[in-house]
Amino acid sequence: PVLVIISQEVSIAMFALDLGSSTNAAAAMKKAACGVTDARQHTLQPTLTGTSTLGCVFDGGVVISADKLGSYGSLAKTRNITRLFKLNDCTVVAASGDLADMQCIQRALEEMIINDTCVGDGHVRKPAAVHGWLTRVLYNCRSKFKPFWNTFVVAGLQDGKAFLSYIDKLGMSFSAPSVSSGFGAYLAQPLMREAMDGAAATGRQLTRTEAVALMAQCQRVLYYRDARSFDKYDIAVITSAGVEIETVDVDSNWEVADYVKGYI
Amino acid sequence: MDVDNMYEGFSFENCLRNTRLAEKGLKAKPYNKTGTTIVGLMFKDGVVLGADTRATGGSTVLSKDCEKLHYLAPNMYCAGAGTAADMVMVGNMIAGQLNLHSLNTDRPPRVVTALTMLSHYLYKYQGYIGCHLIVGGWDITGPQLYSIDSLGHYNDDVYATMGSGMMAAKTVFDARFKLDMEMDDAIKLTADAVAAGILNDMGSGGTVNLCVITKDKTEYLDHYRTICSKGPRQGDYTVKPGTTSLISSDVIQVVSEAMET
């Protein structure tokens, strides 16, 4: 039943506004001139997008973060988007990519959680189950050329152990101690790996304080170097005590600017 | 001498032909980028330049230990990313020009001189010479650090990274750079930045080479840090004498007749 709902929502998403680049607009006009307008072309470009999401595992839980910007191409359109959503006390999902597709998946997931609550047998949907469902849905939709243009990060506690995984729009998924989507893969992943390898070299994992500080450092670097990022982000910490989500400002340091003349 | 028809170096005669062919659907050869992480950092007393040691051709590692820090002058080095041949030839050419200039002016060369020469040369060839450089040194005006790309654009900075691993290295600098660092901290941070490139970028690998340039001396720290070593070979495959038992031996003298021409 859930898959049926998804396909209905996707068909609504198909008629979303198409912006595209000039070449796409030219191609679309050509097609219109021939009397053929393939609405399926709309699903192959994201419109309102979110940038990187980051996640890392620490001793006792997982922390993930995502900034609060919705970009409309190069326009910073909406600056209070929440790309992290808590499903239950042990699972948080974050998304990057097309925000309409993210909201569609979010609604489906939240409906699933409501159904769980209604059943009321004490079982909660755990992160591995959400991960499996997301992977299958994304893979199936891309196989029909109607992809959800998103990269999801699923974080939580699976039977008391930290769980962190990454699923991209092709349905490719994996678990890792640190994950990042989008630009974060180039800019934040090296820092996260360096910190986690450093801790592993002394035979321990990161502590919660270190992990949160690492997220702050990565978000700062992303704000410096990703042209579609923002200086405000949501951070979710999942431990056995539950899920804590808060909004944090990036504290950026621009004192180097005085020493750089730039193009002379 | 017919000066008007003399051609030196690159000739752009075929560009028109190439655009016509491209219009007809011929796809040009993809740009052969050799992955690299090169970094430069300015600290209190001078400049540190760093580079990895991997040279790639496509997805093959052609060299595990190639030198990317090129000598320009006793007080100046440049780290280069891009086409390896272009890097070496341009480095040698500029070093020669700088030496001549220095002899002519009877002064140690300045970093901006090298920068101007490189910028004009690379702009003239419109990016076809694939050199992405970080030029650093210490001259009479103090420590200098510039990055310059293959199209001739340059800018000064307190820290610079270039190459395919530039993003990984840049984040290490963004996270931990401070103004007026001490030499030991600067060396460690530069090595960390190159290490981030080596570990997170597939076009970079090998060891970390550093060059520290201060007012008094230029120190080339070859193989400053090995990121991952291959380890000793586990199996011993040498064949010990006596492995094959000798049953009998017979010596036959072969007389070869030399052919006379």
What amount of the residues of chain A lies in strands? 25-35%
Give the helix tally of chain A.
7
| Spatial gap, N to C terminus of chain B | 48 Å
**Count of runs of 4 or more consecutive helical residues of chain B:** 5
Instruction: Summarize the largest interface: chains and residue counts.
Output: A-B, 22 and 21 residues
Radius of gyration of chain B: 25 Å
Report the radius of gyration of chain A as a whole number of Å. 20 Å
- Work out the number of β strands of chain B: 12
Average predicted confidence as pLDDT of chain B: 89
- Categorize the overall geometry of chain A: globular
Biggest sheet strand order of chain B reads 10-1-2-11-12
Helix content of chain B: 25-40%
Quaternary structure of the protein: heterodimer
Task: Kindly state the number of beta strands of chain A.
Answer: 13
The H-and-E topology of chain A, N to C, reads as HHEEEEEEEHHEEEEHHHEE
* Structural class based on helices, strands and sheet pairing of chain B: alpha+beta
Shape assignment of chain B: extended
Helix content of chain A: 25-40%
* Main beta-sheet annotation of chain B: 5 strands, antiparallel
Overall mean confidence score, pLDDT of chain A: 87
What descriptive keywords fit this protein?
heterodimer; A: 264 residues; alpha+beta; eight-stranded antiparallel β-sheet; five-stranded antiparallel β-sheet; 7 helices; 13 strands; B: 261 residues; 5 helices; 12 strands
